[in-house]
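User: Some background: our group keeps a shared notebook of sequences we're curious about, and every so often someone picks one and asks for a predicted structure to add to the entry. Today it's my turn. The entry only has the sequence so far, pasted here. Could you supply the structure so I can complete it?
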Amino acid sequence: MEPLNLPSFAYKVKQVSGKPYIFDIIRRKFVSLTPEEWVRQHFIHLLITHYGYPKSLFAVETGLKYNSLAKRTDIVILSVDSLPFLLVECKAPSVPVNEAVLAQIGRYHFTLQPRFLAVTNGIDHYCFKIVNGQIHYLDDFPKYRAYNP
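Assistant: Of course. Here's the predicted structure to add to the notebook entry:
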């Protein structure tokens, strides 16, 4: 897999029928190792080890309805009161973080109303919040304890 602009971590990979699978510590199972999954797993570990997010509040690859369409969120972290706190959209490193990606996470924001949003392709990362329809970019990702004492 391609090197990313994210800290490395001790990952477990195995082959199943000639295809690579990586262990997901949130879903507690091996999942197909695609370029997007490579980014997702790195970002999960970043949020846990560097920003203090508890594993118990993660939801990975969960469904939501948007205008009667079934969609999947990459990473949702809940607050202590079980509301969406941080929504993360992961893309493969070859997919640029552009207006289309921002529009996608904006649609998810409309449904879930998380406090913070983030997009990453493993190379470029952006975190922001939407207040009164305006995007406010943050210099860094929010540390969990700073908002959930």
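Suggested note for the entry: The chain has a mean pLDDT of 90. Residues 13-147 form a domain with the tt1808, chain A fold (CATH 3.90.1570.30).
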